[in-house]
Amino acid sequence: MRYFLSLIFLLMLLYSNNLWSDHNTQIKSGQGLQNPNISILGEFLGSYKDKSEDRKNVWGFAVNEIELAFNANLDAYARADFYVGFSYSDGEAKVEVEEAYITLLKLPLSLTARLGKFRARFGKINPYHPDQLAFVEYPMVIQEFFGKDGFNADGGVGINWLLPIKSFYSELIIEGYTGAFGEREGITNPAPFTSSTLILNTRWKNVFELGNLPQLELSISYARRATKEGDDKIKENIFGADLTLTIMKSQYTNFIFSAEGLMRYTTHTQDIYQKQYGGYAYLQLKFLKSYLLGTGMGYTEIIGEDEYKINYTGWFTYLQSEFVKYRFQYEHLMNKSSLLNENRIFFQVTFILGYHTHSYN
User: Fold this and answer.
1) Cβ(176)–Cβ(95) under 8 Å?
2) pLDDT tens readout for residues 201-227
3) For 221-261, how does the pLDDT look when each residue is reduced to its tens digit (9 = 90+)?
4) CA 179 to CA 67: how far, in whole Å?
5) 254 vs 247: CA distance, rounded Å
């Protein structure tokens, strides 16, 4: 951990030196105090589930989330992003700071840094907010490995390095956090996180331009944390690999195939180890400017149990404008023991007031 903190201190020293040495840039008084972009995003979600276990059908209608965003360039060297989520479920209102961080834009050696609370840039899907997803909720494997809302720790520091490779885009991300992966429904974490638990995360992202139209993105990710529960020292390692192929036929027509696989390997002092595998894949076609049609499947094992889940899903999205979209989605969920055989139908409406954006993830 001390080596990671030493690296952060060195980068901050270089950053401050870069500010003082850049005599060609003049920052006008008050430039960082301009009004930020302020926007509100709302999500209405209707759902229907049929449960074969008790033969009870379940209906649900709710404003799933309201997200308030503030975004602004503070000056020529830094940007700030702030997101607050409001939700209401089971008769209880909840307010949560989803992300709040500053990005240092002009570090030496083609580096940028992020400090604060932000979504971990592990894999392809986890960095995205729910409104950025192609489907209603995070894939089943992300929820099982990291929690319902994905990997979003209490706070941390991240470094981006744009590698000096000319033939293709290549980026290395190194991040450190404190906090937890998140509560996982129906299971117990191998050991509880504490505020002093350090989580390390890395991602190597590569983008290849295949001629004039196709684009291929290949990435690998690795997250690690170590903790102690009584006399038991626990080390948890999560490996990930993702692939995304995008074919742009025109400005209004494209095809996307994306897949991601994860593996968790946990070791204990008592020579006990656990392995867990999961993944998802989906196809989506955008056509006639405003219509999206997609299908996908997912698989995840349940840690500590001889059990797994599989789901199949399909969706149709209509983009009324850049501010309003509608989505219909069907999902079939089952497990190894055949005790779970559930069908779910969703109707989702997402609407935006103002210019709502998320920084590069």
Assistant:
1) no
2) 999 999 999 877 799 999 999 999 888
3) 999 988 877 777 888 899 999 999 999 988 889 999 999 99
4) 22
5) 6
Long-range residue pairs from 106-109, CB within 8 A, at least 24 positions apart, any chain: 106/15, 106/18, 106/22, 106/76, 106/77, 107/11, 107/14, 107/15, 107/18, 108/14, 108/15, 108/18, 109/161
Q: How many CB atoms lie within 10 A of CB 216?
A: 16
Q: What is d(CA 14, CA 21) in angstroms, rounded to the nearest whole number?
A: 10
At 345, the pLDDT band (50, 70, 90 cuts) reads very high
Buried b (16+ CB within 10 A) or exposed e, 326-348: ebebebebbbeeeeeebebebeb
Q: Find where tokens 């008769």 sit.
A: 91
- Separation CA 326–CA 321 (nearest Å): 10
Q: Is 146 helix (H, G, I), strand (E, B) or coil?
A: helix
CA 243 to chain CA centroid, nearest Å: 15
The C-alpha atoms of residue 262 and residue 148 are separated, in whole angstroms, by: 16
Q: Which of 125, 119, 45 is nearest to 83 (CA)?
A: 119
Degrees to nearest 5, angle at CA 182 with 181 and 183: 140
Q: For the beta carbon of residue 126, count every other beta carbon within 10 angstroms.
A: 27
Q: What is the DSSP-derived secondary structure letter of residue 191?
A: S
Best CA proximity match to 122, nearest among 154, 158, 157, 151: 151
Structure tokens at 327: 């989505």
Comparing CA positions, the residue from 202, 206, 12 lying closest to residue 111 is 12
Distance between CA atoms of residues 163 and 110, nearest Å: 8
Nearest-angstrom CA–CA distance, 276 and 145: 9
